[in-house]
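User: My advisor, Dr. K., asked me to get a structural model of this assembly before our group meeting. I'm new to this, so sorry if the format is off. These are the inputs:
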Amino acid sequence: MTAADFQALLPFMCVAAAAVIVMLVISFYRNQTLSAILTLAGLLVALASLPIAWSHAPRAIPPLLRVDSFALVHLALLLVGTVAVTVFSQRYLEKYRMERGEFYILLLLSALGALILAAADHFVAFFLGLELLSVSLYVMVGYIFVKEKALEAAVKYLFLAGLTSALLLFGLALIYAALGSMEFSALAAAVAGAPDGLSPFLVAGMLLVFAGAAFKLSVVPFHLWTPDIYQGAPAPVTAFLATVSKGCVVAVLLRFFAPLDPASQTGLFSALAAVAGASMIVGNLLALLQDNLKRILAYSSIAHFGYILVAFLAGGENGPAAATFYLVTYFAATLIAFGVIGYLSPTDQEADTVADYRGLFWRRPGSAALLSIAIFSLLGLPLTAGFMGKFFLVAAGAAAGLWPLLIILTVSATLGIFYYLRIIIAMYSGEGRKSEGRTADAPFAPTSATVLVLLAVLLIVIGIAPEPLLAFIQAATTLAP
Amino acid sequence: MLDLLWLIPALPFAGFLLLTLAGRLPRAVIAGIGCGTVGVGAIFSLLLCHRFLTAPPPDHAFTQSLWTWFDVAGLAPGIAFHLDALSLVMISVITGVGFLIHVYSAEYMRDDEGFQRFFAFLNLFVGFMLVLVLADNFVLLLLGWEGVGLCSYLLIGFWYREPANGAAARKAFVVTRIGDTALLLGLFLLFASLGTLHFQEAFAAASLAWEPGSGLAVAAALLILGGAVGKSAQLPLQTWLPDAMAGPTPVSALIHAATMVTAGVYLIARCHVLFELAPAVLLVVAIVGAATLLTAGFSALVQHDIKRVLAYSTISQLGYMFLALGVGAWSAAMFHFVTHALFKALLFLAAGALILALHHEQDMRKMGGLRHKLPAVFWTFLIGSVSLAALPLIGSGFYSKEKILWDVWISPLGGPAFWAVGVAGAVVTALYTFRMVFLVFFGESRGARVEHRPGPAVLAVLVILAVFSTFAGGIELPHTFGHVTFFSDFLDTALASLVVLPPGLDAELWALLLVASALVLAGAGVAWWLYGKRTQTSDTMGAAPPRDPLLRFWFAGWGFDAVYDTLLVRPYQFLARRNRRDLVDLGPVFIAALARGLHTLLSETQTGRLRWYASVLVAGTLVLLLLAFAQ
Amino acid sequence: MPDAPYWPFLVYATLVLTVAGGILVLSSLLGPRHQERVTGEPYESGVPPTATARLRLSVKFFLIAILFVIFDLELVFLFAWAIAIHELGWPGFWGMVVFVFILAAALVYEWRMGSLDWTERSAQARLRERREAFAKRQQENAAP
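Assistant: The format is fine. Below is the predicted structure of the whole assembly, which you can bring to the meeting.
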């Protein structure tokens, strides 16, 4: 370990140190706000250390991690997502009289797992990162244990995540059996050495690894848990589940599958294409007549990761960039949506049915405007970031000739208009009847308001001027095979 | 200084966002934001004018590229603003008149519960209008074009609780949509044949690629004309504008008189290169303009609603601009645009003050004798009327209209026939203008009571506009006296006029001027004889619609609405009704039912049972493995 | 090693399935199946139970056990480190310092949370009492 290695690892160390510090502080002085501030400080210092790490990129930290521009872009995204979740949590947890400081330790550890995944270059880092992420999440999902649904969700998540971890381990074992190495680079070497086809062990192993990761992405057929857990978990945790815990998995999958050439791996890639297509269709269909906002967002996230898989399958030069760009837009919109939901939820239960949002515009125009921007972006309306995200996805898919998937994308995204607009219509209907929906009246805390407005501005700015960000991501996310 | 160009459209948009997102604000703040954003834009526009006059940038044009929106298959629309003499004139009028109307609205709309919504929409409109005229490519222009259409829709239907207002808004939207479709097709044609939608590049490519009068040039110019005709309410798409008067009066002044409806004029002026390549279409433009100015003038003659008179008058005056464009007199058209924006805004705003004073009474048959009760409104309205009627020497309307008439006479594309139509239109204009003045302000009161006097903001705006509409004519004086060519010289830096004044025509021009002036005065005199001399009581004013068939025909706007209703709307509605359960619907109905059915089916899989979830997860993995190895 | 033969893998998989399935099938085939009055009781042929088996045990047993397992397991790493201490040198030493520090921090947390107290009154409760008493004294001082 040299000094340069340390500097490259600074973001990770900041987050880890913050977790230990928060733990020590709450042993002596328990104060929710202080814990949140320390957490934020740790995350912001980690963000600030990214340029330092950038100056040393690309740098392999053998054998586990690889800090390159691809990893750092994802690190930045994950850290920003965690910052937003921290800000939302602070206000959300205030409503409950319970020990709240530990939540931030779990959040930091979970984020650390996500960061490790984004930079993983080795099976051990892959597995460790995923477990660190998951184990903390089990507790976070059930953190508000006075809510019945939260406990149910936590137990479900624990069981299913355990099951898929086993699948993932089995996959890694098969690949190890085939390659005799646990480094990602060995895979590239194996692919280069066998142009006519990989060994069946390797293919089965890759597919099982994909299955383990796909559970986190909640793509079909690993999607059944999503609505139940989204609904049961506290809104900020759902935000974390929907963004950070998925973004890091996309990053590791992109890196893991980068050496493969879709043209020569027809078997493996046709299975993945089936997953992508099924996710887009099933996700959008399931959301169609759903009345619960959190479940709608859960189902739509299934579809969104189906879209991202299209870019993932397209590969090449544009695939990773398009997927990362889409992640950015999806992160911002989803964080706003769950941030607002968390804010509007009264103490006894979440404000999560569409009926709760009837006439929201007339009661709380600011929240309604923020939620509208987020939903329009998720919908992919032009002039929002979501449109540009979809645009580049389609462009990447078209460049790779994935026409059947693109047709499915277009058709199923049209279905999406129906359920997204239902939310919008509910928010703007019922003028005058003020006491219609069941939402909290508390005003926004300045911190949350700032984060939400910044995210909304980001959505609009990206929608109008996507080129600078896209160019940056394109330059940073080229993965040399 | 020039680099701050982007601020001019950005400020109203910022105002819109602020007013929409900030929650409920106090009225003073709302008015401050609404007027401030446009006012600062007006100051910037003035500074830009100064800069262009004292130290013009190279080629008298300045382009500010902000960023490229996207770049696909050669289509790379930039968010870029192009400032030349043409767009500078447009933005000066939009921000200047727009600012005054904003200030006026702050008082006019004071008691309306939708105050904030009103200013938000108004700011949004100004923003889109500025984008429209500053765009340096067709895509951005189309964005502004559709944006102002949307705002027009929103503001016509501003008092949406009244179903008739909603219907008027819908009508405006649908009718202009026909023109928009033509414009869109025109853009497709341009992009397909020229490969670019950037103004300067497209025009350069067109002059190289197309022979004058070739089929493609004619088609492109015709389609663009279609868009212009819809937006500027020219024959045959003029029917929406009179109904658009359902919106609040400041909206009628800003959108449906001074700015948005002139977008068609701007579009043709901007695309003049394409039109010069298609002389046949230029002739169509002139014919459309001539026909519109006459028919709309006659319709204005018999209306009872003061705002409808002004609406028909707007259509008619836009007809003059089209006539000027049709003979290639770009600067004459733009000159008339400037003066018209000033005096028509003045007329609308004075009418608005009147309507408010009479507690929303718009029927002229119930007014009368208001000269003494509302003197300030009377004098300003009179000044506007003098300009509109183009009474000789006083009022800017005289100078701009005379310039159009001369250019029509001497242009190779014009001629005596068009000149005669223009003069006839001028007579009709004088007639209906003074009919309006005499009915409203002279004679005896016929029922409507003055309940409210205009406040300081309204009066200040009226006086400022009155001053401008009197003296704005001074920027361009006729050749035969004064001979000031300040405005046309300035505009020629962007649009080289096709009309060149041949030497030695002074006597002829004097004669034309005298004939036209005499006829206009005669028209005003007839109005006095018919409406001013006799003090009419309400029962001799005639019923609405009038009994005389010809007058009834004019009253109904030459029956366009009825014809469209019979030929298009009713058959369409009939077909739509017949077709409700028919074949065309089967597709969508089937898809919706299919989606619904699949949703129900898939919902069954969401049992909430952990055991089932785990089984599906494992089974899914096995299926994936099978899929991978089945290949 | 793409040329590795599959058949051992297949044999292994078959064996796993056969054994697991065989046990289930055989036991259901061969096992006694009769339903008598006392079949369901815990001790079919012994002393009948006098009370429920669900005794209330303090959760402390579990907590202490879990804490023991965690710390015991973590300390195993010290052995591995001790064996290679010369090869690892100072970087290894500092690495272990950080590791032990985190472990100690966790221990401090456990202690302050009262997980190590057997009695009901937790450290937290003591802390709260002390704080309340302090606040009370402050009020009394301020009152006159």
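One thing worth pointing out at the meeting: The first strand of chain B starts at residue 61 and ends at 68.

User: Perfect, thanks a lot.
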